[in-house]
Design a protein that fits this description.
46% of the residues lie in helices and 14% in strands. By secondary structure, the protein is an alpha+beta fold. 48% of the residues are buried. Bound molecules: adenosine-5'-diphosphate and magnesium ion.
Amino acid sequence: MSASPSRQAAIAAANYQRVSNTLDFQDSHNAVLFGRNVFTETVMQARLPKAVYKSLKKTIETGSPLDPTTADVVALALKDWALEHSATHYAHIFQPLTGITAEKHDSFLEPDGRGGAVAEFTGKQLIQGEPDASSFPSGGIRATFEARGYTAWDVTSPCYLLENANGVTLCIPTAFVSWTGEVLDVKTPILRSMKALDEQARRILKLFGHTNVAMVTATAGPEQEYFLIDRSFFLTRPDLVSSGRTLFGAKPPKGQEFEDQYFGVIPERVLAFMHESESEMYKLGIPVKTRHNEVAPSQYEIAPIYENANVAADHQQQIMILLKKVARKYGLECLLHEKPFAGVNGSGKHLNWSLGNSTQGNLLEPGHTPHENMQFLVFCAAVIRAVHRHAGLLRAAVASASNDHRLGANEAPPAIISIFLGDQLTDVFEQLKKGVAKSSKKSGTMHLGVDTLPVLPKDAGDRNRTSPFAFTGNKFEYRAVASNQSIGTPLAVLNTIMAESLDYIATKLEKAAKGKFEAAVQAVLTEIAKEHSAVIFNGNGYSEEWHAEAAKRGLPNLRTTLDALPVLASKETVAAFEKYGVLSKRELEARRDIAYEQYCKSVNVEANLVIEIAWTKIVPAVTRYQTELAQNVAALKAAGVAADAVLLEQITQGLSDLKLGLAKLAEERGHHVDGLVAETAHYCNKVLPIMLDVRKAADFLEGIVADDLWPLPTYEEMLFISK
Ligand code: ADP
Ligand code: MG
């Protein structure tokens, strides 16, 4: 394959199937590795005085306030444990509103006053940090002169050790707030919403006659999709380096049409990478379970076993960091962007969510005859009501410049939020609309016609991949979540709107007269089935008819981030979030404004990249080719041979289209617009379409310019020789 020198070098490097790193997998069994770098309950029990351990465990298990006197004792044990594992530093880990993970490291060492140093770590240092908050987005909450911010230890998410080739750091999961106490992070709303959910869910359980009711927790199991491409290609594509997605690139001759990638054999180098990244995750106690090839070429997925939602959110951040880090050891780059490549599937994060406790189990478990399971139906109805009332918010919670390319495209859920319930439950709710539900459709079994094969249970509901919010057996799967976003905000939204619905139902049921409880349940289920079934849709979410039907049903279709963001601080959102003390109006508005800012910044960076790459890489290459063709035509004419100038004309036309688009883009990019909403509208409606025009012209040229001159690695190269 001939190509420009930098592309040539990239191809040569990528074509090299090396696996230079090897794990000592025979000697380090996963069972031994699991949780090795975590300050687990077992470690705590072994190292803490009995009373302190009990008090800490109570806080973790019941959400009761932490006894402040225990902090010093825990700090000492943590320090000893960390030092024994060669730690030199500790870090408060938090998630500011950029959505990334932030960490501030401090050394354990303090001068002893006699020329030496001792390792120090007090309860205060464990509980509270004071990172300067001024460089994190605050959406106008905090003026820069009030720069102070606090990180506060989250007792419910375990501390862990971060290993590096040259040292170890003790990491402490924390929440992050401004000095006035306003929330500046992703974690705090998860914790607050989980508390609200617990309170409301327990009210319902008590109404159902349970006397022993443990704390109810939201659970989360996020499936992460990602691409892996050879790092040498990545490094020669400034668009991937700086924006995470390709802003140019013609469709390759072969795409994903053979459907030969999904669940296909995992390439050798990729599997080696998976083994190592998973073993790093095991060390941190992250229960990763499944891995497989995804639909698009060079696309993969990893999913953990579900956990307490707060811990799952922290682990999810770790998973993303580790995927990126370990990939580089294998000469690969992990792309977490929602749509790194046009024309093939994008990546999402299916957020599986449920709620439950140790005494009543999973509260979304329907059993075999859901129509008789009133308690399940109440919880399920609460979800239906919550999603219907707050469909716009569920869209807004996943809105970003990058996710806009995926939602509503032809492979991802549409921007209309609806619920897939499956045949069996839809039928039960249809019955409920009219009164009592008397039956559940049977799921039955499948016989495969070969005696040696087992008889398989048939799912009562088939899967529906097009639904943005699907009931999948005993949990809901929120599929619109973006692949590179933290699951924190989507979780906080789910928990809060669910708490609101459970509160609504509990309030009704508590009013029921003695002996009339069942009738009251029946009535509220019928009411919800009647008023909120509009959100249930089991059909094809990609179809045109659904868009028309959804509009008829009054479901919001918030196509872009611009359309969706106002809902983040709408009257209904504020009412729900303030009622349960999750976020105030001001905090919600701040989040919305930060999301607007992030959108504008992302598109602006992309526009800059389009201009830079086009002028410095594409235009020069095309001009060279144009000159070569012109010389050829002139030479032929001089020799008296008929010269065909069609290609030269096409190149010239393409180049002129490209330059025209670039001129327009430069003008619109520099255009000053006042106000966040207007600026977002400008980027969405003006800048993005011109970027697409420029791309169209460039992609056309890519198809006709001599390959040895083309400066950017092609889709074919990146997607098919990166294994
Ligand atoms: P699929 O791709 O078929 O949807 P996977 O096995 O890849 O299924 O992922 C299912 C995910 O759902 C896993 O992360 C799993 O832990 C999670 N999950 C299962 N039960 C629950 C639950 N009760 N609460 C939250 N997540 C759950
Ligand atoms: Mg799934």
